[in-house]
Design brief:
128 residues, mainly alpha, 6 helices
Length: 128
């Protein structure tokens, strides 16, 4: 709920470039990229994927060592995620930059949904 309130209180604006966004926030493009990679890398879903999905695709009796199979699957997954995230980011930036009203609507809807989901989880927690 706090995050949703923060989004509604201070909505972000779409800037012309990452360099402008970096200079406005006092960060470089590299720092922004490293922050995003760190946030994504610390996501516990990555470990969940590794421990739940990858083992069923690894054949210990296969021709390749288990470490090689694991590395190949991990690299393939990272490459696919990079392509998808890059495409979503570029398309979102393009659409939201050309339609500032859409950017404001998305920001308001995101903030409101965060507050609603937080409220729902709070009620569930108190009831349970």
């Amino acid at each position: 709920m706090w995050l949703g309130w923060g989004v509604l209180r201070q909505p972000t604006a779409v800037t012309a470039s990452a360099a402008e966004a970096g200079s406005a926030a006092g960060s470089s493009s590299l720092r922004i990229m490293l922050k995003g990679a760190g946030t994504s890398g610390l996501n516990p879903k990555a470990l969940l994927l590794y421990f739940s999905l990858f083992p069923q695709f690894i054949d210990p009796a296969g021709g390749w060592p288990v470490a090689t199979q694991t590395g190949l699957l991990g690299s393939l997954h990272m490459a696919a995620c990079a392509v998808v995230h890059l495409a979503v980011g570029v398309l979102a930036r393009t659409v939201l930059r050309t339609r500032p009203s859409a950017a404001r609507a998305v920001t308001r809807a995101s903030g409101a949904l965060m507050i609603a989901i937080g409220g729902f989880l709070l009620v569930e927690r108190l009831a349970g």
